[in-house]
Design a protein that fits this description.
This protein is an all-alpha fold and about 260 residues long. It is about 50% helix and about 0% strand.
C-alpha cells in the first residue's frame, strides 16, 4: 500500500508532537492509518460517523460544538475524580445537571438526585443502549438502587405512567414517528421493571429527565459535590486506574484520541 507521508503526519499533529512520540506509538499510528485507508479503499460505505457514537467521538454534541472543537480536550488529572470528569469530559452536561437540579428542587432523596445527575453521562462514550452501558459504568461506585434506576430508565421513557404524571414525550413523536413501536427487548425490559420492587427508582429518573431541557436554566456541578461525596465511591487510584471491571470505560474517556 502506498502511503502519503504528508497526509499521515498531518493526522498526528505538530512536528514537535510527532518528535515526542515513542517509536511504538508511531508504529501503532501508522498501522491504524493504513487500516483506515484499506477500509476506505475496499468499501463503498459513505457513513463517516455512526449515529450511536459517543459525543466525544461523533460530535457535534448538545453544546453545538463542532467535531474540531470537541477534539480540543483538556488533560485529565493524574487521579481523576467524578467531578473532574464533569469538568473535562462531560461538560457542559447541561441536561443531566438540569435533571438533578429539578430533582433537588422537588425534594427528592439524595440517591435519586445522584441517579439523575449520572443517568446520561455515558452518552459521551456511547449512545446505543445507554441505560445498560451507563448502569454498568457506574455499578462499582454507587448503590444498587442508583445503577438499577439508570439501567431501566432507558426502557421506561417509552411508556407513560399517569400515577406520577409521566406522559409519552412529544419529542419522541418527532424523532421516531407517531407509529413507532420500541423493539421487543425494550418492551421486555419495561415489563420486567414495571413489576419490580425498585420500579420507582427508574421511573422517577424519567420524570425529571422529561423536564430537563430548559435553555434558560443556569446550572452547575457545585450544588451536587457533597452528594457525590456521600454516595459515589471514588477510588483512591482515580477513575480509570482502580482495576475495576469498568476502568477501561473511564480510560476511554480520558484518552479518546488513542489509536489502539
Amino acid at each position: 500500500m502506498q502511503i502519503d507521508r504528508r497526509a499521515f503526519f498531518a493526522t498526528l499533529g505538530t512536528a514537535a508532537a510527532i518528535n515526542a512520540m515513542p517509536s511504538e506509538a508511531l508504529a501503532d499510528a501508522l498501522e491504524h492509518h493504513m487500516m483506515g485507508n484499506l477500509d476506505a479503499e475496499t468499501t463503498t460505505n459513505d457513513l463517516k460517523v455512526r449515529r450511536g457514537a459517543g459525543l466525544l467521538f461523533g460530535g457535534p454534541g448538545p453544546s453545538g460544538k463542532s467535531p474540531a472543537e470537541l477534539m480540543k480536550l483538556e488533560p485529565m488529572p493524574e487521579k481523576p475524580t467524578l467531578v473532574d470528569f464533569f469538568r473535562y469530559r462531560f461538560a457542559p452536561a447541561t441536561h443531566v445537571l438540569q435533571s438533578a437540579t429539578d430533582a433537588m428542587k422537588k425534594g427528592e432523596k439524595e440517591e435519586l438526585i445522584l441517579a439523575c445527575l449520572l443517568h446520561d453521562v455515558v452518552l459521551n462514550l456511547i449512545k446505543v443502549d445507554h441505560g445498560w452501558w451507563g448502569a454498568q459504568m457506574m455499578e462499582p461506585y454507587v448503590s444498587e438502587k442508583i445503577s438499577w434506576g439508570i439501567r431501566y430508565h432507558q426502557a421506561l421513557r417509552f411508556y407513560p405512567d399517569p400515577s406520577v404524571g409521566y406522559e409519552y414525550p412529544e419529542l419522541y413523536n418527532q424523532i421516531f414517528g407517531k407509529d413507532y413501536v420500541p423493539p421487543p427487548y425494550v418492551k421486555q425490559a419495561y415489563e420486567y421493571a414495571r413489576n419490580h420492587k425498585s420500579y420507582m427508582d427508574a421511573r422517577m429518573i424519567t420524570v425529571h429527565d422529561l423536564y430537563a431541557f430548559d435553555p434558560a436554566m443556569k446550572v452547575s456541578i457545585d450544588p451536587f459535590i457533597d452528594i457525590i461525596g456521600r454516595h459515589f465511591k471514588q477510588p483512591k487510584e482515580g477513575l480509570g486506574y482502580d482495576n475495576s471491571p469498568v476502568a477501561h470505560m473511564w480510560r476511554t474517556l480520558i484518552f479518546p484520541d488513542n489509536p489502539l
